[in-house]
Predict the structure.
Amino acid sequence: MAGRIDLVRGMKEILGDRYFVYGGYDSRPDSTVYGNYAEIPGDDYFADDKRLLKVRHYIVRLVTDHKDFVLEDTIETLFDTLDIAYQQITHEHVKTEKSYCTEWEVVILEPR
């Protein structure tokens, strides 16, 4: 099962090393097309004083100058290939930024 590093590596292969970054809008590159991700604090599952499963939730964001169906499909294929559960949660034009934002919530399970 894939982890966060596999996700980051795949996104950098799709968008390029300089255009996929950790963090929010403040860490974005000076480019119309970029992606980033941020962790949403999640829960770990425990039993008998042992951690059984680590659950990591992330928001993966893609910002482009227009809705890019091909790029979105490529990213969703990456999620499928890595066996990462995902759900598209945002796809909207951001007038103030003159860009289009698509976001997915992804869940990565890390067994003990």
The first strand starts at residue 20 and ends at 22.
